[in-house]
Amino acid sequence: MNQLMPMHLHLSACGRITALGPTLAKIAAQAKIGAGGALTGQDFFQLFDVRRPAGVTAMADLSARQGERLHLGLRGGDVAFRGLAMADVSGGIVLNLSFGIGVAEAVRAHALTNADFAATDLTVELLYLAEVKRTVLGELQRLNQRLQGAKIQAEEQALTDTLTGLRNRRALDLRLAQAVAGAAPFALLRLDLDRFKAVNDTLGHAAGDHILRMVAQILLAETRSGDLVARVGGDEFVILLPDLIRMPRLIAVANRIVAAIARPVEFEGHICQIGASVGLTVSTLYAPLTGDAMLQDADTALYAAKRDGRGRVMAFPDLVQER
C-alpha cells in the first residue's frame, strides 16, 4: 500500500486512522497535525474536513460516497486534497488522496521528491515538464525583450546622426511627413555653416567634427524638447518647430542660433571662427501643404541670406511681420 498509494489512509469501521502512507505522514508531521504529527489512532473527522460533497461528517456518510470525488483538507492547516474512498471487507475504508491541481504548490511547500510519489504516478514527470515549459517561456520572454530592445536601439541608430547625435535626414523625412499630415502648424529652419570648409581645409577633419558637435549642442540648447533638430548634410541642418509660426519669435530664435555659432571656438590651440546663415518658412503659407515645397523654400531663403552677406536670417518670402 505504501508503494502503490503513498498518500492513502486506512480507516477502521469507527473512523479511526489505522494506517497511512509515508508521504501523507510526512506532510502531517510538517504541518504538526495530530499528536506531534502522528495520525495513527486518531479520529479521521477530527483531523480532516470533507468540504465537498457537503454533509460528510461520519463513516456512514463516507461509505455512501464511495467512488465519488472528495475534496478535503487538514483541519488547522492549508493543505487541500482530492480523495477517493472505497470500503474494505472489515467495514473500514481505504481513502486515497492526491493534491489535484495544487500539486506544484504542494511539492514546493513540502519539499516533496520523486520518492514521495508512487512509481506509476506521472506527477513528477508532469511537474518537470511544467518547469521546463516555464523555464523555456521565461527564456523566450527574456529573448523577446532583448530582441525588442535591440530593435528599438537599431531603429534609434537608423534615425540618428552618428557624429552629432542629432536626428538624420531619414528622421527628418518621417517627422516632416507626420507634421504635414497633422493639423498643427509648424515652421522649418534650414541652416548652413559659413566658412566651415576653411576650418576643414586648414585644421583637418578632426577640427571640422569638433565644430559640428559644438553646433549640434547649440541647436539643442536653443530649441525645445519637442522640436526636431537634424543634420541633413555635411554642414547643413534643419529644425522643425511644431506650433511655432509667429515670425518675430522665429526670427528671434534663428538670430540667437546665428549669434551663438558665430562665437570663436578653440581647437587644439587654434581659434576657429565660423558663422551660420538661416532660411525659414512656415506651414500656413502653403495650400496644399507639402514637405518638399517647404524644404525647397527654406533652402531658397537660406541661399538668399548667404548672398546677402551671410551670418543672417531670411524668411520665405521675405516676411518679418507676424502672420
TrEMBL record:
**Superkingdom of the source species:** Bacteria
Occurrences of domain GGDEF (ranges): 184-318
Pfam families reported for this sequence: GGDEF
Q: SMART domains in the record, alphabetically?
A: GGDEF
Alphabetically sorted, this entry's keywords are: Coiled coil
Q: Which CDD domains match?
A: GGDEF (cd01949)
Q: Does the keyword Coiled coil apply?
A: yes
Q: Please give one Gene Ontology molecular function term for this protein.
A: catalytic activity
Q: What is this protein called?
A: GGDEF domain-containing protein
- Identify the species of origin: Pseudotabrizicola alkalilacus
